[in-house]
TrEMBL record:
GO terms for molecular function: hydrolase activity, acting on ester bonds. Transmembrane segments: none annotated. Residues 17-37 are annotated as: Disordered. The keyword Iron does not apply. InterPro entries: GDSL, SGNH_hydro_sf. The keyword Cell cycle does not apply. Belongs to the 'GDSL' lipolytic enzyme family. Gene3D superfamilies: SGNH hydrolase. It comes from the Eukaryota. This is GDSL esterase/lipase. Keywords: Glycoprotein.
């Protein structure tokens, strides 16, 4: 199970209207390893891909590309390029608008949806106990949103405890 932003997104950005036509949807992204754009913010693989390969498991299915429990049984990636740690309410209260309508909280909700698809409580517990969870880099886009809205460095610095709190709350609750 993988969470994060563009440094971990294995293709969700191709399935989200706000990012579908972004740079990772066209060459040269994906040319070297996959021979086609995959939605990864890379010409090749991401760290999550190397980890999956080292463990001998398939590349995780992007959540927005899956439809059934079978699509998610061997791994799922919730990361979205441009995702923020903080939710839209935080930004809106400061007169800012995120570039992508996905936050870490959305990814946690998607994770809970996948767990429901995977069957009984016993089955979900077994799957989680034998799974690797990767919480990739997230929070940088929060600052990019701030600076795009002409926020000062001091104002952006005040985001730090909020971003850390958002990550902490999702990691400890999920």
């Amino acid at each position: 199970f993988s969470f994060g932003d563009s440094l971990t997104d294995t293709g969700n950005s191709l399935h989200l209207a706000a990012t579908r036509a972004g740079p990772s949807s066209r060459p040269p992204y994906g040319e070297t390893f996959f021979r086609r754009p995959t939605g990864r913010a890379s010409d090749g693989r991401l760290v999550v891909d190397f980890i999956a390969e080292a463990l001998g498991v398939p590349h995780p299915t992007p959540y927005l590309a899956g439809k059934s429990a079978e699509d998610f049984r061997r791994g799922v990636n919730f990361a979205v390029g441009g995702a923020t740690a903080l939710g839209p309410d935080f930004f809106e209260s400061r007169g800012l608008k995120p570039f992508v309508p996905v936050s870490f909280t959305n990814q946690a909700t998607w994770f809970k949806n996948v767990l429901q698809l995977l069957g009984s409580v016993h089955n979900r517990t077994r799957i989680m106990a034998t799974s690797l969870f990767i919480v990739g880099e997230i929070g940088v886009n929060d600052y990019l949103v701030a600076f795009a809205g002409n926020t000062t460095v001091e104002e952006a610095r005040a985001f730090v405890p909020h971003i850390v709190g958002a990550v902490r709350s999702v990691v400890t609750v999920s």
